[in-house]
Write a structure and sequence with these properties.
Spo0b-associated Gtp-binding Protein, Chain: A; Rossmann fold; six-stranded mixed beta sheet; alpha/beta
Length: about 375
C-alpha cells in the first residue's frame, strides 16, 4: 500500500511545473556596408509575455531544449542600406510569473495578462561607429517562478477537506479522495455572486509539519501563499492524524501548527487577513468539538501545552470570521461565501482610504513647498 501511494504521489505532482530554467539570447546584428556607409539591422530581442491559459509545463514539453534566441538582423546591402531588424522572440508564460537570474536577482514580475519583460537584448547592427561589424546579442540563463495569484488561499493540513470545500463554494473540480495528499497541484476556483462579482480561491497542496524546512510539498506550497490577498484556514473539527506513527492533532493544534509553518517560512504571511473554516460539521460530536475549539481560540495560551515549545507561534492568528461548515452536506457554505465577500470588500475599502490619504498628504506637502 505504501509503495502504491508513493507512486501515485510522484506521478501526479510530476505533471505540475511551477519553476523552469531557460537559456535566452538576443539575436546577432547584421553586417554593415563600408562602401556606402550602410547599417546592418539590429538583432531581435527576447521577451517573456504573460498569456491566458498558459502553463510552464507546456513550455517544457514544447521546447525541451529550453533555448530561446532572437532573430538575426539583416546585412546592409546596395538594395537596402539599412538592414531589417531581426525578429523578436516571445516566450508565452502564465500570469503570476517572477523572472529571476541564476543568482536570484529579480528581473521583473508578470502579474496581469499581456505584461511583458525583455530578458535578452539583441545585438546592434554594424555601422560606421563599429567599423561596420555587428555585435552579438546578450545571453543569460533565467528562471521562471510561478506564484499563483488569487484572492483567497486555502491553508490546511492533508485531508482537512480543502478540495471538497473548493468544489462546494466554486466552479472548480479538483480531485477528491479519502486519503491524505489528494491535492498535489494547485487548483483555482471562482466564486460567483449575484451581482457578477468574481472571487478567486486557490486550493494549494496540503502542508505537513516541517513544511518551512521544505518537507513534503514544503516551499512548492508556501511560495504560492505569498501571492494571495487573504488566507482561508481549513481544519477538521475532529482533528487529524497524518499516519499511524504520527501524533494526533486537535483542530486547535492544527490552527497553531499551520500558523507556525507560515511564520517560520515568512513571518509577514501571518499578517494577512484570515478566516477560519471548521469543516466536517456532519461528523458525530462535531458541535461539542466546535464549542471546545472556540473556547481554546479565545484563550490560546492556556491550551498550547500539547505542542512543542518551538512549534507555538509568536503571535496567534486573529480570524475575522470563524465559520463552521460541512463541505459534503452544504451546511454553512452560503454563510462562508458571504464572509469571504465581506472580508475582501472590507480590505478593498481600507486600501482605497489609504490611497486617498496618501494622495491628500502629497498634495498638502506640494502646497507647502509652493508657499
Amino acid at each position: 500500500m505504501m509503495v502504491q501511494f508513493s507512486r501515485i504521489c510522484f506521478r501526479k505532482y510530476g505533471n505540475f511545473v511551477d519553476n523552469l530554467r531557460l537559456y535566452v539570447r538576443g539575436g546577432c546584428g547584421g553586417m554593415g556596408l563600408p562602401r556606402f556607409g550602410g547599417q546592418g539591422g539590429n538583432g531581435g530581442n527576447v521577451w517573456v509575455v504573460a498569456a491566458k491559459n498558459m502553463t510552464l509545463k507546456r513550455i517544457k514539453d514544447k521546447y525541451p531544449q529550453k533555448h530561446f534566441v532572437g532573430g538575426t538582423g539583416a546585412n546592409s546591402s546596395v538594395r537596402a542600406l539599412k538592414g531589417e531588424s531581426g525578429e523578436d522572440k516571445e516566450i508565452l508564460v502564465p500570469v503570476g510569473i517572477t523572472v529571476t537570474t541564476d543568482d536570484g536577482k529579480i528581473l521583473g514580475e508578470l502579474n496581469t495578462e499581456n505584461d511583458r519583460l525583455m530578458v535578452a537584448k539583441g545585438g546592434s547592427g554594424g555601422s560606421m561607429y563599429s567599423e561596420f561589424k555587428p555585435s552579438k546579442g546578450k545571453a543569460k540563463h533565467i528562471r521562471l517562478d510561478l506564484k499563483l495569484i488569487a484572492d483567497m488561499g486555502l491553508v490546511g493540513f492533508p485531508n482537512a477537506g480543502k478540495s471538497s470545500l473548493l468544489t462546494a463554494i466554486s466552479n472548480a473540480t479538483p480531485e477528491i479522495g479519502s486519503y491524505a495528499f489528494t491535492t498535489l497541484k494547485p487548483e483555482i476556483g471562482k466564486l460567483m455572486y449575484k451581482d457578477h462579482k468574481q472571487i478567486s480561491v486557490a486550493d494549494l497542496p496540503g502542508l505537513i509539519e516541517g513544511a518551512h524546512m521544505n518537507k513534503g510539498m514544503g516551499h512548492k506550497f508556501l511560495k504560492h501563499v505569498e501571492r494571495t490577498k487573504q488566507l482561508l484556514f481549513v481544519v477538521d473539527v475532529c482533528g487529524f492524524q497524518l499516519a499511524s506513527k504520527t501524533q494526533f492533532r486537535s483542530a486547535f493544534d492544527a490552527v497553531q501548527l499551520l500558523t507556525k509553518e507560515l511564520e517560520l517560512y515568512k513571518e509577514e504571511l501571518v499578517l494577512k487577513p484570515a478566516l477560519l473554516v471548521v469543516n466536517k460539521m456532519d461528523l458525530p460530536d462535531a458541535e461539542d468539538k466546535l464549542a471546545e475549539l472556540l473556547e481554546q481560540l479565545q484563550n490560546p495560551d492556556e491550551f498550547c501545552d500539547a505542542l512543542p515549545a518551538d512549534m507555538i507561534p509568536k503571535n496567534y492568528m486573529a480570524f475575522r470570521h470563524v465559520v463552521p461548515v460541512s463541505a459534503s452536506t452544504g451546511f454553512g457554505i452560503d454563510r462562508l461565501k458571504s464572509c469571504i465577500r465581506e472580508s475582501l470588500d472590507e480590505n478593498a475599502e481600507m486600501e482605497t482610504k489609504h490611497i486617498h490619504q496618501e494622495r491628500l498628504q502629497a498634495l498638502r506637502k506640494h502646497s507647502q513647498l509652493q508657499l
